[in-house]
Amino acid sequence: MAKKLDPTIMQDWEIAAEAEKSMKPIQQLADEFGVLTEELLPYGHYLGKLDYRKILSRLADRPNGKYVDVTAITPTPLGEGKTTTTMGLVEGLGLLGKKVSGAIRQPSGGPTFNIKGSAAGGGLSLCVPMTDFSLGLTGDIDTITNAHNLAMVAMTARMQHEFNYGDDVLERKNLKRLNIDPYNPAIGWAIDFSAQALREIIIGIGGKMDGFMMKSGFQITVSSELMAILAVAKDLKDLRSRIARMQIAWDRKGNPVTAADLEVDGAMTAIMVKAMDPTLMQTIEGQPVLVHAGPFANIAIGQSSIIADRIGLKLSEYHVTESGFGADIGFEKFWNLKCRYSGFVPDAAVIVATVRALKMHGGGPRVTPGKPLDEAYTSENVALVEKGCENLIAHIENVKKSGITPVVCINHFYMDSEKEIAAVRKAAEEAGARVALSRHWELGGEGAKDLAGAVVEACEEKSDFRFLYETSMPQKQRIELIAREIYGAEAVSYTPEADAKLRRIQEDTKLASMGTCMVKTQLSLSHDPELKGRPKGWTLPVTDVLVYQGAELIVPVAGGIKLLPGTASDPAFRRIDVDTETGKVTGLF
Q1: Through-space distance between the first and last CA atoms of the chain, rounded to whole angstroms
Q2: Which of 438, 359, 454 minimizes the C-alpha distance to 122?
Q3: What is the Cα 421 distance to its own chain's centre?
C-alpha cells in the first residue's frame, strides 16, 4: 500500500480515501485481534464497538502485554505528530511481527473544524476510516454532551420550581428544597465546538415559566467532567457512582449540589451506557486501534480510557497508548493519575521531538498556523537546534523521574538536515535516552522499524516505576512539587480565592486525597505560552481550583486557560466539503 501512496503530494484525506479501499472488514479485524463474534458490536462494515465486559471477563486470567505511552516535547501550535507517531509505532511493531494494538482519544469537533485538525495521524501513519473518526465516530462525544446538558436541565429546572413554589407545593411534588446559589454554579452547558461567543451568556430571559434568569456559559464537551469520568471509570458500576458524585452547583450555604441530589444521575448514566464500549478501528496497515474517551490534556486528564488499555493489554503483546501534549502535561497525568487509577505499570515511554519545534525553543521565529514557516525552519540551523534541545532534555528528565527509560523519536521532516538530526541524537543520548529517527509519516511502518526496535529493547529493560507523590501529600505541596520538578518553576503563587479553596479542600479528607490534575498551557513548560525552551526563575500563578468529585480530581488552574476555546480567523471548516455525487468528505487533515 505504501508504494501507491505519497504523502509528499497527497493530502491526508486523499491518502485515507485510497487506503480505505483495502480496509479489513470489521469482523476480520476483530477476529485477528482476538475478539469473539458475540463481543463485537458492528457499526456498519468497518467500525465496531467492543463489549468490554464480555472481553475482560473472558480474559481475566490472561497476562498483560507490554505497555507503552507516547508523549512529546513542548509542541509548536502546529503539533509535532504525536498521534502520527503512535500510529507509525503500531505499524512498525506490526512489521516486526508483534501482535500490537493502539489506543487514542476521539477527536473533538472544536479542533477538527478549527486549527489542529482531526488527530487521526498523518501521512502513511493514519487511523481509518478517517471521516468517521473525525466526524462523530460512534457517538460518544454526543452522548457526553447530552448527559452533561441533562444535568444542567435538572439544575435550572429545579431553580425555577424552587423560585416559583412554596415548600408545601414542593413537598407535594416530593421535592426537597436545595437552595441552589444562582451566582455560583459549578458547571455550564456543553458544546463540541470552539464557540467563544458562548463562553458567557444570560439564560432564563422571559417570564417565570421560562427558567430562572442567571449568568451561565458553555464549555467544550471534552473539558466536561463526564469525559474525564469516562476516561478513568473501570466499569459501569464505577461510572454510575462517579456520576452520582459529580458536582453540578453550590447551595446558598456553600455546600456542593451533586447529580444525585438532583436525582439526575441515573438518567445521565443511562444516556452513557453505550459510550462505555470502546470503538475498534485500524491503521492503514491493518493493525487494531481502540478509540475511547477524549478529555483535553491542558484542562482535563488528557488520556484515552482505562477500559481501552485494559482490553489492549489483554489482547496484544504490545499496547501503545497516547497522552496529550508534552511530558509536562499528558505524561505527568498518565504517570500520576491514569497509572494510579488503573494499577498498570508502563514498560516504555516515547518522547516525540521534531527539529522544527526544537528550533522554535532555541529562539526561532514565531510559528503561526496558516502562515508559511520562516526560512529558519526550512534551512539548516544547527545552533538553534542545539539551544532548543534544553526543552527536550527537560522532558527526558521528567520521564526518567517516573523510573522509565525514555525513547526519543525524532519525527523526521523532509527539510531536516543530517547535522541537525545528529545534534538532537547527541543531546538525547547524553541525557540518558534511547534515540530513533523515524520516517513513519513518509513510509508508514517501514519507516518506523528503528523506532519499534528501540521500543522493544526499552520494554525489556527493568523499570523502577514510582509516582511523583503519594495521595497523603497535601494538595498544595503536590502543586508545588509538580511546578518545581516537572515544569521547572522557582515558586508558586496563589490568588486569595485559590488559596481559600485549597484550605477547604485540605480540611475535607475525601477531597484531600483525590488526584491533582493541573491546568496550564501546552505551548510552554511554564504557564506563559510565550516562554519557550526551558524557562528559568519564574513563578507559576494558580488562579483557581476546580473540584471534579466524580472523576476524583482536584484541578488547579494556572494561567489564562479557557474551558471553551475560540475559533480562529482561518479555520479548517473552510476547506471541508462533500462530493455530492459520491458522498465522500474532502479536506480533512
Answers
A1: 20
A2: 438
A3: 29
For residues 128 and 282, is the Cβ–Cβ distance under 8 A? Answer: yes
Over residues 159-185, the pLDDT tens digits come to 999 999 999 999 999 999 999 999 989
| Residues 234-261: tens digit of each pLDDT | 999 999 999 999 999 999 999 999 999 9
Backbone angles phi, psi at 325, to 5 degrees: 60, -150
* Chain position carrying cell 449568568: 215
475-482 and 496-507 helices cross at what angle (nearest 10)?
A: 130
**Nearest CA to 103 among 65, 145, 146, 147?**
65
Task: Say if residues 63 and 346 touch (Cβ distance below 8 Å).
Answer: no
pLDDT band at 1, cuts 50/70/90? very low
**Distance from C-alpha of 352 to C-alpha of 334, rounded to nearest angstrom:** 16
Q: Write out the catalytic residue numbers.
A: 82, 84, 105, 116, 297, 325, 413, 441
Rounded Cα gap, residues 20 and 92, in angstroms: 19
CB atoms within 10 A of CB 431: 18
Q: What pTM was computed for the model? A: 0.95
Percent of the chain with pLDDT over 70: 99
Q: How far apart are CA 1 and CA 21, in angstroms?
A: 10
